[in-house]
Structure formats: structure tokens, C-alpha cells
């Protein structure tokens, strides 16, 4: 079978290889992979000293969708359409950038009938993360009357989050992006206003600023998050689900103790199966992605060209990898 593999002998290198089909362990199935998705984490996995991969050599790809073709679990018989995101896929064991993959059934979701293998990967980890973030904000009061800011709005998580917020009917959906040339695209996704960091942030950041946003979906972290906290409405919430802008947070306690702001951590890797099933069914029925989102489809051999765009910060929308799908 064809796989994309990252090795470190003697230096980190990513290349196509011909590998033997995996041997199944207990409660594992062999999935014929139709589609995978390319995420920022997958891009980092191809680079040295990022800590994403737990061992070498390893096939990256934290997403996959396909069909079970061999099974050691009666709950997942041959022919079952499945999808998987997160857990150790593409991190501690071989992932989705392969024609076939052995996956523990405790990591698998039986794909909803209304969701094709391709649609599942248009969502992928990015869509599931966006769903977790919006779901967490709804639990803290987000509704159709809310003013919501989305950072990194042209990326995979940001793009899908805009669509979910549009379907909820939020009255103000503000996209924060450096790619102001993508304004028309962001408005098609659901943004009612486009802001650049230069337009929003003052030269000198204050502990508390004008209360502009009720809720925030932050895919960036770092300095961007620190600068956003002072703008959040009393009792508002931020869902933090990314670190492209850095892992350090230099801020004050004032937004939390004077305005009761909530900072909600979003983890898509080890989210409970109960939450996964709830949100994937919601994405398959209620929170669907429209044709407005930019979706690029590539082959395994083309993955590295997309990885470079992700690392350079020039990538827009979602890129999926067609492996066995039509």
C-alpha cells in the first residue's frame, strides 16, 4: 500500500513509501481510507523538533474516513462506513495519509448516513474543533443575538466556525484576519464584518477596553488572545482552540475578576465519544457546510505542497486528500 511516511534517519524527512498492510490487533479494524484532511498539526508533524510525532517512522494524518474491510470487532463488521479524528491517530500510531490503516474501534465513529466520506473530511478535525468551540459557547449563552468574533477566520477551523455561527443566526459575526483580500470569501461564509489586527488593536494594550464582543472563537492563541481579552463583554466567553500565534499568554486577571470573562479550553484530541457522536450527528444534519467554503482536493503525492502553505500562513479554507474515494 502507498503511505506518506515521516522518518528521522538521520534527519527528519517526509516521503512516499510502499508499506505492508497493517496486522490487526484485538478490537481493531482495517479501514480502506477514502479521504483524509490536512490540518496544521499534520504540517507540524513533517517538521523537526515540533514534538507532534511520538516515534519514527510514522505516517501522519490525524483524520480519516473510509470503509471497514477487515474486522476484529463484531460491532464494526466489514462494510461499515467510518470516520476517525484525533486520539493517537497520526501522532502515536500511523494515521490517515495511507491507502489502508488499522484503527482501534474505540477511536471510530460509524459515519452518519447523511454524511459522505468526502463531506466527513471537509469537516475533519477542523470542523469537529469548530463544533466543539461553538457548542461550548452556546452552553455559556451564545445565541442569535450574540456578537461573535472569529480569529484566523480564513483557516479550516475559522472557516467552519463562521458557517456554524451563520446557521445559528448570530446578529454580528466578525472575522479577524490579516488576509483582508479574502473579505468577499469571509462574507460568503457568514461574516458580517471583517477586521484586521491593525484596525482592532490599539498601539498600547490596556487591561480593559471597550466591550465589543460577547463571544470569541480563537484559533490563534498567544499575543492575539491576550489582546482580545480586554474587549470581551461582561460575562462573555472565549473558546480557545489553537496556538498558531504561540503558546504563551501574557495578560492580566482584570477581565476575569472585574468582568467575569470565561476562557474555555477546547480539546478535540481526547474529547469523549459521547460528545463526538452528538456533534458529528449535528454536523451531518443541522450544522452543514455550504458550497461557500473553499475546498481543495489533492492526492497523497501533493500533500507536501499544501503543508508548505499551512506553515507559511498562506493556506485558505480546507484541503482534503483523496486516497481511495471517488
From TrEMBL:
Q: Where is the Enoyl reductase (ER) domain?
A: 5-321
Coiled-coil residue spans? none
Q: Name one GO molecular function term.
A: acryloyl-CoA reductase (NADPH) activity
Entries under Gene3D superfamilies matching the protein = Medium-chain alcohol dehydrogenases, catalytic domain (3.90.180.10), NAD(P)-binding Rossmann-like Domain (3.40.50.720)
Q: Which InterPro entries match?
A: Acrylyl-CoA_reductase_AcuI (IPR014188), ADH-like_C (IPR013149), ADH-like_N (IPR013154), ER (IPR020843), GroES-like_sf (IPR011032), NAD(P)-bd_dom_sf (IPR036291), Zn-ADH-like_protein (IPR051397)
Q: Which Pfam families match?
A: ADH_N, ADH_zinc_N
Q: What is this protein called?
A: Alcohol dehydrogenase
- Source species, please? Enterococcus florum
